[in-house]
Structure formats: structure tokens, C-alpha cells
């Protein structure tokens, strides 16, 4: 087929025209299933928690992110593919950020990167964009700041904090970011940032008025354990389907009904 992937400029052109629907994927089977329905797929560093069972996102590496991204790119044709830069791979200097972004894009074939950080990271956004790396900024609740925040907490609840986050988003827009993820911010603030910016805002725990939405796929499918975050909605209980199938398989092995002779080789009829 000659299906063409949605490009970064095409995502930008969605602003004011149609909503951007996006989710995370880390592996081939999910990427394959998601691709027909989404404008953008993010290989989120949330895979540290969701995929690897770690307590936060801080210890995933550039090589791990690149490997997950390569699996997702290989398994999709349509969605724009964006990869999270992991903690410690871009904060040190603009040069470090470019070297690692180039490594991730070259190893995976993804379309662009996402990185966390307020106005302080805008110089890095500019450095990357001017050198051919599309950047999706991520402000508000930034999980890589878990230790400075003292946990995962909604942001922008005071006027002062709201002004700072608006300033952060504007700084990245001015630096050339193609969009901004707004995570865990007050609804009115997300609405205001969306109205103020010319580039799309992608909300997660933000506002229905954002230009697009993103969630962690496992959270909407009943695959992320007992508690689902306030900002997510469980659209299906795939976990229950998997449990049912695995139970039937285990029962079949134990009662001898699996495998059947149709599953075996060289059986004489
Ligand atoms: O890592 C992640 O999954 C994310 C979002 C869902 C925005 O950064
Ligand atoms: Na992330």
C-alpha cells in the first residue's frame, strides 16, 4: 500500500480544524492495533512504570526507548510517531540533547521527540528544531520531576503557577516546538494556553478544549492494575478478556484437551 504517515506539519495544521487523537504504544501488537485510529502515537517513557513495573520514569535508557520506538515504527504505517527522551538524556546541554535525539530517530525511524521541561528547556527546543528534530514540548505535571515535586501532583492551581506554565508553553512555541503536551494542569489554564498558542496543545488531565488528547493505552484498556488515574477513562476491560483466555488455556493443559491432534505435526489421519 502507499499509505502515507501523518507528518509533523500535518499535525500542526489540525489546530482549529480537527482534534488530534493520540495514545501511547511501546510494542508491536499495540502499535498495530492502534495505527488505524490515531493521528499520533507516543512511545512514552511511561513504559518504565507501565511496561517495566518501575516506581517512576527516571531509569529508562535511550537504548530502551530507541528499541521500543523501532518496534512501533515497524508496526505502523499511518500515525505520526513521537518518542519520549528519557531522564538524563537531554537536560545537560543542547549538544547532549541533539546527540541523543539523533540517536533515537536514527535507530527507530520515528518522526520526532518529546521532552519535559519549562522555559528553561526552550533553548534546547530551538537547538533541536533548527537542526531537523521536531520537538513536542511537555509542561505542567512533568513526571521526570517527581522528586522535586514530591510526588505526582496536579500543577497550575495558583495564579502564579498558572502564569509560569503559560510562560513555559509560550517559550517552547517561540523556540519552534510543533506542539505542547499539557499534563495534570488546572482545566481553565489548559483552555487559556490552548487559546493563546498557535501550535496544538495535547492534553492529559488538562481540558476537553485542548487541540488533542493523549492517554496511556494500558489505562484505557484495564491493563494497568487496580487503580486508574482520574484523568483516564476505562473504555474496555481487556484485562478480563486476557484472564479468561489464560484460565481456559491452563485448564486445557491440565485436563489434556490442549493441545489437540490438530495442533500436532506428523499425525496420521
Ligand atoms: O510517557 C508518557 O506516556 C507521556 C504521556 C502520556 C504524555 O509522557
Ligand atoms: Na513521558
TrEMBL record:
GO molecular-function term, one example from the UniProt record: 3-methyl-2-oxobutanoate hydroxymethyltransferase activity
Intracellular or extracellular location(s): Cytoplasm
Highest taxon listed in the record's lineage: Bacteria
Binding site for Mg(2+): 45, 84, 116
Catalysed reaction, written as an equation: (6R)-5,10-methylene-5,6,7,8-tetrahydrofolate + 3-methyl-2-oxobutanoate + H2O = 2-dehydropantoate + (6S)-5,6,7,8-tetrahydrofolate
EC number of this enzyme: 2.1.2.11
Gene3D superfamilies per the UniProt record, alphabetical: Phosphoenolpyruvate-binding domains
A Pfam family the protein falls into: Pantoate_transf
Keyword Glycoprotein (UniProt): no
Function: Catalyzes the reversible reaction in which hydroxymethyl group from 5,10-methylenetetrahydrofolate is transferred onto alpha-ketoisovalerate to form ketopantoate.
Protein name: 3-methyl-2-oxobutanoate hydroxymethyltransferase
Species this protein is from: Paralcaligenes ureilyticus
Amino acid at each position: 500500500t502507499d499509505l502515507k504517515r501523518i507528518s509533523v506539519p500535518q499535525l500542526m495544521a489540525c489546530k482549529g480544524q480537527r482534534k488530534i487523537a493520540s495514545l501511547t504504544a511501546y510494542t508491536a501488537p499495540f502499535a498495530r492495533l492502534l495505527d488505524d485510529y490515531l493521528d499520533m502515537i507516543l512511545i512514552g517513557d511511561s513504559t518504565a512504570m507501565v511496561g517495566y513495573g518501575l516506581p517512576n520514569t527516571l531509569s529508562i535508557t535511550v537504548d530502551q526507548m530507541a528499541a521500543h520506538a523501532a518496534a512501533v515504527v515497524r508496526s505502523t504505517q499511518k500515525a505520526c510517531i513521537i518518542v519520549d527522551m528519557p531522564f538524563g538524556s537531554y537536560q545537560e546541554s543542547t549538544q547532549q540533547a541533539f546527540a541523543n535525539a539523533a540517536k533515537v530517530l536514527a535507530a527507530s525511524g520515528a518522526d520526532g521527540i518529546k521532552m519535559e521541561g519549562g522555559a528553561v528547556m526552550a533553548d534546547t527546543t530551538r537547538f533541536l528544531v533548527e537542526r531537523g528534530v521536531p520537538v513536542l514540548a511537555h509542561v505542567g505535571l512533568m513526571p521526570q520531576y517527581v522528586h522535586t515535586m514530591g510526588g505526582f501532583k496536579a500543577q497550575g492551581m495558583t495564579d502564579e503557577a498558572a502564569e509560569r506554565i503559560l510562560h513555559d508553553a509560550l517559550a517552547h512555541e517561540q523556540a519552534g516546538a510543533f506542539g505542547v503536551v499539557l499534563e495534570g494542569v488546572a482545566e481553565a489554564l489548559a483552555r487559556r494556553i490552548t487559546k493563546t498558542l498557535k501550535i496544538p496543545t495535547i492534553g492529559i488531565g488538562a481540558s476537553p478544549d485542548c487541540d488533542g488528547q493523549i492517554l496511556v493505552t494500558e489505562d484505557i484498556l484495564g491493563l494497568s492494575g487496580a487503580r486508574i488515574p482520574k484523568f483516564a477513562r476505562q473504555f474496555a476491560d481487556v484485562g478480563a478478556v486476557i484472564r479468561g483466555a489464560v484460565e481456559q488455556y491452563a485448564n486445557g493443559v491440565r485436563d489434556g484437551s490442549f493441545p489437540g491432534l490438530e495442533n500436532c505435526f506428523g499425525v496420521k489421519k
